Amino acid sequence: MKCPVCGSGKSFVKDSRIENKARYRRRYCEECDHTWTTYEIGAAEYESLRMTAMRTQGAAAIRDAGLMDQLRRALGNISDIQREIEARAGGGSK
Ligand SMILES: [Zn+2]
């Protein structure tokens, strides 16, 4: 496998074991001494992880949308107050 840092193909596996249905591999690059981890999983496990990630991201997006609504309402109130202040200031300067 190519090193993600220097792109060298001179890497080897230092450690390998099964972890949560996945093949864990600790890899080492001979060129730049970089070490990194890879997990090899089956297509079914990959699909399950992908679906979980999509659900999590969807929930976060909905939560953020709720926050944006609150922010818009708050900003609306501020512009109402600003309009009122300007109206009063305009009335007083006559
Ligand atoms: Zn490297």
Indicate the radius of gyration in whole angstroms.
28 Å
Question: What gap, in angstroms, lies between the N and C termini?
Answer: 79 Å
Number of helices: 1
Question: How many separate structural domains?
Answer: 1
Q: So what's the overall shape?
A: elongated
Biggest sheet: strands side by side, in what order? 1-2-3
Output the helix-strand order.
Answer: EEEH
Please estimate the helix content: 40-55%
* Overall average residue pLDDT: 88
Q: Sketch the major β-sheet.
A: 3 strands, antiparallel
Instruction: List low-pLDDT spans.
Output: none
| Beta content | 15-25%
Bound molecule kinds, no repeats: zinc ion
Number of strands: 3
Structural class: alpha+beta
Characteristics:
94 residues; elongated; three-stranded antiparallel beta sheet; alpha+beta; binds zinc ion
Short description:
The chain is α+β, with helices and mostly antiparallel strands. It contains 1 helix and 3 strands. The protein has a 3-stranded antiparallel β-sheet with strand order 1-2-3, with no helix packed on it.
Walkthrough of the structure:
The chain has one domain. The N and C termini lie far apart (79 Å). A 3-stranded antiparallel sheet has the order 1-2-3, with no helix packed on it. It contains 1 helix and 3 strands, in the order βββα. The protein has 94 residues and is of the alpha+beta class. The model has no long low-confidence stretch (mean pLDDT 88). Bound molecules: zinc ion. The site of zinc ion has 8 residues, from loops.
